[in-house]
Write a structure and sequence with these properties.
With 354 residues, the chain is of the alpha+beta class. It has two domains: 146 residues, no CATH class; 134 residues, 2-Layer Sandwich (Heat Shock Protein 90), CATH 3.30.565. The chain is 64% helix and 13% strand.
Length: 354
Amino acid sequence: MQHPVFLNTRSVSVYFGLWALIAGVHFSIYYFFYFIPIEVSMADSLVFNFLFCGVGISMWYIVRYTIPDQKNIWNVVFNHIAFLTLAQVVWIGLSYTILSTVFRSNKVYIDLLVISIPFKIIVGIIFYAVIALTYYLFIYYINLQEKVKVESRLREVLKETELNMLKSQINPHFLFNSLNSISSLTITNPDKARDMVIKLSDFLRYSVSHNATSFTTLEKEMANISRYLEIEKVRFGDKLIFSFNFEGTCRSHQIPVMLLQPLFENAIKHGVYESTEPVSIAMDCEYKEGYLEISIVNDFDPNAHARKGTGIGLNNIRERLRLLYKNDKLIRTVVEGNRFSVFLSLPNTENKKV
């Protein structure tokens, strides 16, 4: 985050203009009320105020990296007290040294300089508090602006995601192929056709009953993906092999609804469709260092003519993860030989809507 004083020409002018105004008030009090010689009044006001002007600029760095919250409030207080003490010593010590050296022959002013030190300390505390508060307000304002932008972008992406989810979840080709398979099964295997109708109905019900902002358990998500794969297996038979392997503790982990569905659809589209050999899709899951680590690996034929895709699936997943978890490095893909792997790292989330 850029220093607020040096954001632009206007901020620089405002900052130094305010200090010039304070110096002017300081000068006026000394000269008009205490009848201190003009050169002494001017020197006192310039040295004290513009040295603290420099202190105020340096204060940004401690404020920037000590944002208070419930966990570190005492650490923040300690850091500010320590920096304030150091700043006061440097500010008053340097000012006193400069002015006492310049006006060493003026005994009256030297005495006034010593007497005014407690007052200067109080003024310094007030200056410090005002500047620190202003910097914190600036930080909170910038964060609020960023939050508004992110939420606005989130709403736009979620609308796009919901539309893309509907287009991918209720894919016409998937429905047509499933209905054709059911139609064939009604003649050859009525019981299997009835079972497939139930699975298709459950799959569609789950797909349309959630929106892109919902969270669900991994167990529920995988149950729906199992229905999807079982429906596809009716068409592909032994050509499609799939397996799930995840720890019991992973089952209750909250994940964004329909997050994994596009990954399995891609595995079917680019793996099973294009291969003449059996293709396996394997999903593994485990906890590592506070993250739910999910891997989805599928075989594919590297020599087959690749189907042209829109890239909607992976792009939407990456964007959803970035906006929901404020992290754009939670998904990565790896191609090794005839194996395509997708790795997801999902943080722990609490109080998510299921």
